[in-house]
User: What shape does this take?
Amino acid sequence: MNRFSFEDEEMQDDGEQISTYAMSYACQDLQSVANNESFPLEERDEAAEQLEQLAEDGDAYAQYVIGTAYRDGGLLIPDTVKAQKLLERAAEQDLDAAQYALGKLYLSNDADVHDPAKGIYWMKRSADSGNDFAAYRLGKEAAKMCQKTLRLRRNICGRPRTMETPTHSTSWESYTSWARAF
Assistant: This one.
């Protein structure tokens, strides 16, 4: 006991699903060609190049698609720094799936992009946009922080302390000794 846990081993992470309703037809077509392994590699590469051009022109969905392709590899050579830049551009345009993907990227253990503060920020923005998976992930991150805090407190204090108020005396020492316990 005395451990935070979540029953999420079998939970499917669909937080990066995007709706194609707002996506341009060009982006939809290029994404379907780039992701379809039945097409020849040359056609898939051409579609990826055209998606990159759409991303450069400011299309948030193309930025998201190419950003996740750089993050995950497959058609494109993995490059987390390029992925971070593209996902950030899409996330700044309020695409909640990009905000979630960017938060996950920052919270990953990849040394090139690891930044927990930014990860929490983007997860919160995604959750505020209605992404339930981002809200769930924020809860998991909060639980991790609580566990680290409890371990740190035990290492420093030696034993858990209760949240009792200082004695009713008004002496400065009683307040400072109580504050030092926490």
